[in-house]
Fold Putative 6-phosphogluconolactonase.
Amino acid sequence: MLIPKSILYAMSIATCKATKLYVSSYDGNITTMHVTEHKAVGIYNQSQIELKPIAINNGCAPSPSWLQLHSNTLFCADEGNTTPNKSLLVSFKTGPNGTLLPLSKLTTLNGNVNSAIYGNGSTMALAEYSGSAITTVNLKNTSALTILQSLNFIFDFDTTRPGPKPQQSVPRPHQILFDPTEMFMLCPDLGADIIRVFHAHPANKILTEQKPIKVSPGSGPRHATFYTSEECGAKKTYLYLVTEISNSLLGYEVFYKNMTLSFNKIHESSTFGSHFIPVDSAASEILVTPNNKHLIISSRNDTYFLNSTNPDPANKTSIVSDTLLTYSINPCNGSIALTQKYPAGGSFPRSMSLNRKGDLLAVALQQSSRVVMFRRNATSGNITEIAGSVAVNGELTDVVWDEPTDDGVYARALGVISFPRDSPVREGAIAIHTDILNR
């Protein structure tokens, strides 16, 4: 018997898969939402993604800024915008219904804006933008977080000095990321126009600072990502950096020798490639896609698209939108090329996060107070359409997937590189560089 297409479509609505997102906002809340994709059976790839808020938690108030998921624990870094002398790191146990159960609350220095977990999940490092510091935290007992080490930075006018811009009056650590071996930690410092480099002791997790990467004065380094390649007969690692003030995109080949890292610059352009940089734009996030083929960069306040599709399906009025930029990566030499500029769905795409397949990109729009889900062609790298969106109160600061892997570890669990912890790309990268260090 033939079933009419209309009935097939109705049947397909009940056949769906669901996962979750966690979204933080400067209004003090973390919102949990279901991400449910309804796929149509027998019809030309029709699908719809529903983003439905299911729980709200204010346990990371006043200023949740950065979220990190590790197994069934969600860590929230509070920036402390209304508490100038302190910030918070809060751990929550995640529940299947989206609820967050507070486990521990730790007071740290001011300005927590980013974190990464290392040491097989035992330790976290926090970038403290307003406190000019990096703090490491013992995570062995997520119900009793404790500080391990605090590194406070000042300008010594020998190796570091302030940049020429007003926001560069003090050191401004803005991100924590680890190389594929987990033996080296990097921290872009927006105030000092350097990327700080540290060796992370494998036993006690103590950080020892090494020679930094210097960038042009007034650049304002913000976020970076590692990329590894084993193609073309070579085993190589690259680092890509975006700067917030100058809107530069920099690429470096990374070399390992005698327990140190060195960097050779291979690329320098604006974040918009050979195109003009829109006035007042400010680069934000940079990710490597899970298939290890592309970079995605978010640009805030550029208003590049003046007549963009409104992500709210109930509103057909076109909007002004900032930009998402996609670059292809040459695995043989690390060179990159701009392949797409796409409207971000609104204003200030502060944070973005890819699902494991790389075919869905969630973007937190700070000024538009909206999460927008984009569909991607993972092979070409191009964003193809808005797949769904939802309004969320306040200025949005971060968005992360709750999408379990086979071993229960999550995509931003480690903070080393952008692809998931158990991906063959990441495992190959660790094997490559562990071998190099052991030679």
Remarks:
- The chain has one domain: 22-438.
- Helices lie at 5-13, 424-438.
